[in-house]
Amino acid sequence: MSFFNIQALTYLDCGPINLQIEASEIIGLNGSSGSGKSRLLRSLADLDEHTGNVSLQSVDQHSTKAHIWRSKVALLSAETYWWLDTVAAHFKNYPKQQATEFGFVNDVSAWQVSRLSSGEKQRLGLLRLLENNPDVLLLDEPTANLDPENAQLFEDFVTNYIYKHPACAIWVSHDVEQLKRISQRQYKMQNGLLVSETKEI
Amino acid sequence: MFIKLTTFDLSLAAVLVVLLGVLSAYMKLGIAKQLYIAALRTTVQLLLIGLVLKNIFESTQPLFVLFICLIMISVAGWEILSRQKRKLKGWWGFGVSTGSLFVSSFLITVLSLFTVIQADPWYSPQYAIPLLGMLLGNTMTGIALGMDRLTQTAWQQRPVIEQRLMLGESADKAISDIRSEAMRAGMIPIINSMAAAGLVSLPGMMTGQILAGAEPVEAVKYQILIMFMISAGTGFGVISVLWLISKRLFDDRERLCFKRLLKQSGD
Questions:
Q1: What pLDDT, on the 0 to 100 scale, is given for residue B207?
Q2: Chain centroid to CA A169: how far?
Q3: pTM of the model
Q4: Which CATH code of 3.40.50.1000, 3.50.30.50, 3.40.50.300, 3.50.50.60 fits the domain covering A4-196?
C-alpha cells in the first residue's frame, strides 16, 4: 500500500481517479480552468462530497474524524483567508525562524492582516498550514500571485518540507515548466480524468 | 382617570405609519409593504382578540387553555421563520423555531405558573395566557434576530469557515465566532430593556397595573419576574436555535452544507 492512496475517486462529473503517491513525492497537475483540479483537491481534503476510497498510510479517510483528516491532508487554496486582526492571531505559535527563511525580512507577526500583499498572504498561509505538520500537501496554484523570486522561494520551501517530513504533495499549476522542475510525475486533468504526462517506467 | 381614544386619535397615529411607508418607498428601502401588512394585522388581530379575550379568561377547561397556547406558539414559530432571509429547508425551519419557543417560553411559563404564581387552578387563563404571550413576544424577537444573523453571516463568510476547516478546525470551532456574534444579536433587545427599565422605559404591564390601582411595589415585583423570565427564555431559546442550526449547517463529515438552506427570500 502506498503512502497516499486514491482509488476510484469520483466527484460531480469527474473520475474515476486512481493515484498512488509515495512519501517524499510531489505530483504535478495541470489542466484547463474548470477541468476539476480544485474540486479534486477539495475532495481529497474531504471538503466536497465524493465517492471512492482515499487512504493515508493505510488509514481510510472516513475512519478518521473529518477535522483530523484535514489537519493531515492539508489544502492550501489559491486564495487564503484571514479573519482575525493580526497575523500572529492566526497561528498557534508564530514561526519567526521559518518566516525569515521564507523571505520575510521584517517581523510581520504584529501586522494588521490588511497590510499583507497577496504574495505575503500566500506564504504565510503555507506556514499556517504547516503548523499542523500535515502528511499530504494539496497546493492549488500556490505561486500564481508570487513574483519569480518568491515563487522560487516557495518551491524550495515546499520541496524541503516534503523531503524532511517526509510528506507528499499534489501541486496544481498552469506553469508546466514549474511542474517539471518540482515534481517527479506530471498529470493533466482531461475530461474529468487524470492523464499521465510522464513516460511510464 | 381613563381617557377614551376616539377613531380620530387612532387615525392620527395611522397617518404617521402611512407617512413612514411613503418615505420608505421614496427612498427605496423596501419596507413599506411589510410595514402596512403588519400594521393591518395588528389592528385586526387586536380587535378580534379584544372581543373574545374576556370569554377566554373565564374558561376553566385545561385543554382549551393548552389549545390556545399551542396556537400562540405555532404562530410565533411561523413569524420567526417569516423574518428569515435564509431558512432551513423543509420542516426543519418551522421545527427548530417552534421547538425552541416551546423550550424557552412554554416550559418557563409552566414552571413559573406552578412554582411562583400558584394561581388556582395553576393554568388559570388570565395568568397563563398573558404570561406566555409576553414571553413569546419577546423571545421570538431574540430568536428571529439570532437565527437570521447566524445563517446570513455563515452564508457571507463561507470562505472563512472553509478556510478554518482546511486548517483542521472542527465544524464547531469553525463557526464558533459567528455563533457568539449571533447570540449577542439575539440578546441585545432584552439586555437593552432590562438595563433601561425604570430609567428610560416604564414597562407596559407594570404601568398598566399601577394605573388600574394595584400597589406599585406589587406591580414592580411582577415586572421583575417577567423581565427575568424573558431574559432566561430568550437566552435558552437563542442558544438552542443556534446549536441546532449550526449543527444542521454541517454534514457528518464537517462540511458546510448550504443546500439545506433555502435560497434568499424576499421578506
A1: 87
A2: 6
A3: 0.88
A4: 3.40.50.300
